[in-house]
Each structure stands twice: as structure tokens, then as C-alpha cells.
Amino acid sequence: MKIVLVCAVLAVLATVSTSSIVKSPTSRASLYYGYVGPGDRLLNRTYVQKAAIPNTIQSQDVAYRGNFTTKITAIQVVEIGYTQWATPWLIAGGIGGNNVTIRVQSARGYGYYYVIDIWGR
Ligand SMILES: *[C@@H]1O[C@H](CO)[C@@H](O)[C@H](O)[C@H]1NC(C)=O
Ligand SMILES: *[C@@H]1O[C@H](CO)[C@@H](O)[C@H](O)[C@H]1NC(C)=O
Ligand SMILES: *[C@@H]1O[C@H](CO)[C@@H](O)[C@H](O)[C@H]1NC(C)=O
């Protein structure tokens, strides 16, 4: 009986922690999608940086929106400097579209420093 109770409590804890922390599907420090082809231009370059805060996971979304003729061909989210084990991932739009949204999330107790390049026509 006691063991069943402990298991139930653990299950509840597990559910709470997975729903409160948005976990990325990949865990790579940098992210590369697509290829920069001839005629492609750098459409936008954005730097995102956050200093470490003890015991805290920080995150932010970076969106790029082109016009109706824009075609995104490559997305490069590159970590600058020493690794801080942060994770970027694609949450909306992407290659072949005219918009893209990248989420950058730090490891707990760390910061991050990225350059996000959007290439296309
Ligand atoms: C890139 O995007 C950021 C915000 O997303 C904007 O402030 C900046 O002006 C853009 N830069 C260029 C060159 O379009
Ligand atoms: C649409 O965006 C592209 C870049 O993707 C730019 O070259 C073009 O001038 C823009 N067109 C207009 C009408 O703003
Ligand atoms: C963003 O791009 C996706 C395709 O990558 C498209 O389906 C969607 O309509 C676009 N959203 C906006 C607001 O343009």
C-alpha cells in the first residue's frame, strides 16, 4: 500500500515537471537548416544573449517575417563563444516559407549567446 502511494506521488511529480519545462526535441548547441544557394541573401541577422541566472531556465522566441515573395532557404543558429549547453529549435515556419520562429532556451543556471542568420530570396 505504501509503495503504491509513493509511486503515485512520483508519477504526479513527473507530470508536473515535464509540463512546466518546455523540452526541446533536439539537444544540440547550434542549429543548421537548409543551404545557402547562389542568389541568396542574408535577410536578417539577430544576436541574442542572456547572462546566467542561478537555478533559472531562460528562453526567448525570435521571429523573422518576410513579405509574400520571401523564400527562406537557410537558417543558422550558431552559438558564440564557449558552450553554455543552451538549445535552439524551430517552433514555427521554416525552409521554403516566408517566416520563421526560433526558440532559444538556456540550461538551468546558465545563459546563452547566439547569432541567428536567416538566408533567402
Ligand atoms: C532583424 O530582425 C530584428 C527583429 O527581429 C529587427 O529588429 C532588425 O531590424 C532586423 N534586421 C534587418 C537587417 O532586417
Ligand atoms: C520582399 O522581401 C524580399 C526579401 O525576401 C526583398 O528582396 C523584396 O524587396 C521585398 N519586397 C517588397 C515589396 O518589400
Ligand atoms: C509562415 O510560414 C508557413 C510555412 O513555412 C506558412 O504556412 C504560414 O502561413 C506563414 N505564416 C505567416 C503569418 O505568414
From TrEMBL:
It comes from the Eukaryota. Residues 1-19 form the signal peptide. Keywords: Signal. InterPro entries: MBF2. PANTHER family: GEO11136P1-RELATED. This is Salivary secreted peptide.
